[in-house]
Design brief:
Layout (H helix, E strand, L loop, with lengths): L8 H12 L7 H4 L2 H5 L3 H9 L8 E4 L4 H4 L8 E6 L3 E2 L5 E2 L2 H11 L5 E8 L1 H9 L10 E6 L21 E5 L6 H7 L5 E7 L7 H8 L7 E6 L19 E2 L5 E6 L1 H8 L2 E2 L5 E7 L7 H8 L9 E6 L3 E7 L7 E7 L3 H15 L8 E6 L10 H11 L7 E4 L1 H13 L11 E5 L9 H12 L5 E5 L9
Parallel strand pairs: 1-2, 2-5, 5-6, 6-7, 7-8, 8-9, 9-11, 10-12, 11-13, 13-16, 14-17, 17-18, 18-19, 19-20
Antiparallel strand pairs: 3-4, 14-15, 15-16
Helix pairs in contact: 8-9, 9-10, 10-11, 12-13, 13-14, 14-15
Amino acid sequence: MTSIGSLPGDVLLDIFDFYVADKGPATKTKTEAWQILIHVCRRWRHIVFRSPRRLDLRLFCTANTPAKDILDIWPALPIFVNGHVLERIDESSNLVSDDSDVDNIVAALKCSDRVCQIMVACTTSQMEKVSAAMREPFPELTDLWLRPWDEMVPVFPDSFLGGFAPRLRSLWLDYIAFPGLPTLLLSATGLLTLRLLDIPHSGYVSPEAMATSLSALTHLRTIQLRFKSPQSFPAQESRPPPPPTRFVLRPLADFYFRGVSEYLEDFLARIDAPELNYLEISFFNQIDFDTPQLVRFLSRTPSLKTFEKACIAFGGGAVGVKLSTRIPYLGALDVNILCNEFDWQLSSLAQFCNPSLRPLPTTEDLYIYEYQRSLPDQQDDFENTEWLQVLRPFNGVKDLYLSKAVSARLTPAMQAMVGGTMLPILKNIFLEGFQPSTPIPEGIREFVAERQLNDNPILVSRWDRDPEQETF
């Protein structure tokens, strides 16, 4: 038998590497697992400290870590600052937090040349202390996530991070106003992920400035731009015309946007993303959806030109249309319009589908259903026109799936389609809960009968709805 103490150093290093290997989300216990090894014996301590990069040695500082006292006892290792300042209820039932926790975070941030990752969530007043401690460059910083707990908006100065972040890979700012962001992004040429969530109106960055700053990010894979309210829109009188050339964001794979259509239009007019695989759009409710730049952008994005499946879903706070391929994660467009009332949802969807969605000859499966809500009983003649506008792009559909509530509302519109050219190659209609012994809804029955007379038979069958389609 061979004792572990007789193993060569390189073998021990392989064992140590396996022991400290990252296994899931970073925690203090996982990140500082190497500290157990160095207390075994002097030889192990020497092997560990001789290979800090191989073993990814880091110190993990939380809001409870007395950074002033402990950082000096270790070698100058990279620091992961993970400070979630939790609030508590005091004797007067007020929500308070301990400022000493923030002082611990600030003490760790003062080692700016060693901090490699930052994840901090706290109140706005505390976040201002954090941002004040981050006005120096952080040359080793790779990942940054900041979020205030409360509804106040912290404003970061242009000097945040010294305006320079050369090694940054991931940037996530939530409900923070940072007017100097475009300048910082121009220096973060290795950025892989950019998430700007709940962007306040005070943190507005124009589409032109945003597109220009992103053009320097030659490795960017994911963008999230989500504005807090529809107040953040480009002023009509200051909107410049589309430029003659566009920035090419070649590696970009996923783009998430929430805002007004005018902002998205001005942004998409300035970029190309030939490798984009997933585009998710959430529009605030508005009177008009005029999106010619979106149509042009889709036409020049290969994976977003051909779809085989479409889902239209009416929800409690939004209506959505999702176009995808039958192969998961290989091209998808997901558009949601944020509004509550069904009549607004249908009207907004009709405005978007016609003419924003070009004809979809390859889309063979169309699902229409509701989730998290019940549809109203009252209908009017104008609703039929809106349904026709929604269905017009889907001229390649062969299989139509309708929930029970939707089929009742769509019946008059399908009656109006009798003798027309809508859904010209439809082969099957699947109705939720349909039984051969129950009558087909009148409008659908007339539509099917007319196609039968024209030697284009349509089969009506039962649809057993997938529970996963309760969300969209």
